[in-house]
Amino acid sequence: MGTVWHARDEALGRDVAVKEVILPHGFSDEEREIQHKRTFREARTAARLSHPGVVTVFDVVEEDGRPWIVMELIRARSLEQMIKQDGPLSPRRAAEIGRQMLSALMTAHEAGILHRDVKPSNVLVIDGRSIRAVLTDFGIARAQSDATLTQTGMLIGSPAYIAPERAKGRQAVPASDLWSLGATLYAAVEGKSPFERTEAMASLVAVLTEEPPPAPHAGPLAPVIAGLLRKDQETRLTAAEAGVMLDRILMDTSGSTRVMETAGAQAASTRTDSGDPAAMPITGQVMTPADPGETATDDPAARDTPVDRAGHGAAVDHAGHGAAVAGDGRPVWLSGRHGNLAIAVVLAMIVIGLIILTLVR
Q1: I want to staple 121 with a disulfide (CB 3.0 to 4.6 A). Which of 80, 133, 228, 295 is the partner?
Q2: Among residues 29, 86, 117, 276, which one is catalytic?
Q3: Any idea of the CA torsion for 37, 142, 183, 188, to the nearest 10 degrees?
Q4: What does the pLDDT read at residue 331?
Q5: Could you tell me the CATH superfamily of domain 77-252?
Q6: Rounded mean pLDDT of 131-137?
Q7: What is the mean pLDDT of the segment spanning 284-290?
Q8: Separation CA 75–CA 72 (nearest Å)
Q9: What's the pLDDT at 146?
Q10: What is the largest CA-CA distance in the chain?
């Protein structure tokens, strides 16, 4: 219940966001007092958390009998807006956002703070070279040491994202926020919460009585979502378990490895001993077609350990250099066209030497 304004901090010369609390008409003085206390509690709660995934609160002031929260200005769309405008996210992108949300929640839980309203509209996503997900709206968050400010019989939270234990009227626990995270990740890849219905009461009934349908577009994220949406909070994934699973998704390089392997196989298939220059592999070196008796390769490993036509490796000297051999056992430099030229040069030098010896005598 509020409007966020873009404002200017004239004292420090910076742009900020200011949250104005707007109460519905018909609230009694007691209810207004409760909401004002809740606003101050939101500022106090968020200010206790120092994490890049939690919006920074600078100050809270009272003007015209109402509290205003001054906080970090984040120029970003909410996750809900991203889903509506761009469609569902890829599993990896959703996992990256989910991992940052989980980290923020873990920091809050370690400080004894429960968010109690995790949902796509309360997640701002800065989508640049790298993604930054920021958890906002701690308006109904509750520190375990705070006294409750919720009226009797009043359920706080969004029905499609509320945990079953809270829908039953039980006390919220850290696992309750993790359930909401699971529903948020489901919405990120499928477009909406698995328990979203046209009526709030129908959503609550679905949360209590229905199992979430499979997420066909979740890919590797499916086990994480299923584990977070277990109705029994005792068997629900813990934050640490979910973190490990999300990290594995983000560190998975099997796709790039397959691309590299395919490229390597294609390069190997293009290697040839043909005399056609157009059939030679394209490398960073100028290569000439190989003679029938020569061994040519653009594979560094093959250059380090030369192999003859029969598949035998050549001996390597102490300096680490290999001596390439042709199929007939001669060194490569004595085989083929270059070998014939070398032999002719050696014979000519022998003849010249004999003539000189004859003249000297």
Answers
A1: 80
A2: 117
A3: 60
A4: 53
A5: Transferase(Phosphotransferase) domain 1 (1.10.510.10)
A6: 90
A7: 37
A8: 10
A9: 39
A10: 132
Question: Partners of 7 in the beta sheet?
Answer: 16
Please tell me the pTM assigned to this model.
0.64
| H/E segment holding residue 127 | strand 123-127
Whether 240 shows a pLDDT value over 90: the answer reads yes
Helix (H) or strand (E) holding 18: strand 14-21
Q: Which of 143, 200, 194, 199 is nearest to 167 (CA)?
A: 200
CATH 1.10.510.10 in the chain, residues? Answer: 77-252
pLDDT, tens digit (0-9, with 9 covering 90-100), for 135-162: 987 654 444 433 333 443 445 568 999 9
Please give the Cα distance from 355 to 361 (Å, whole number).
10
- Of 5-9, 54-58, 178-182, 220-224, the one with minimum mean pLDDT is 54-58
> Going by DSSP bridges, is the β-strand pair 142-143/113-114 parallel, antiparallel, or unpaired?
antiparallel
| Residue-wise burial string across 262-274, b where 16 or more C-beta atoms lie within 10 A, e elsewhere | eeeeeeeeeeeee
Instruction: Name the 3-class secondary structure at 124.
Output: strand
What span, in angstroms and rounded, lies between the C-alpha atoms of 6 and 327? 79
Residues 99 and 106: their CA atoms lie apart, in Å, by 10
Tokens of 258: 């397959």
For the question of residue 276 being annotated catalytic, the response is: no
3-class secondary-structure state, position 54: strand
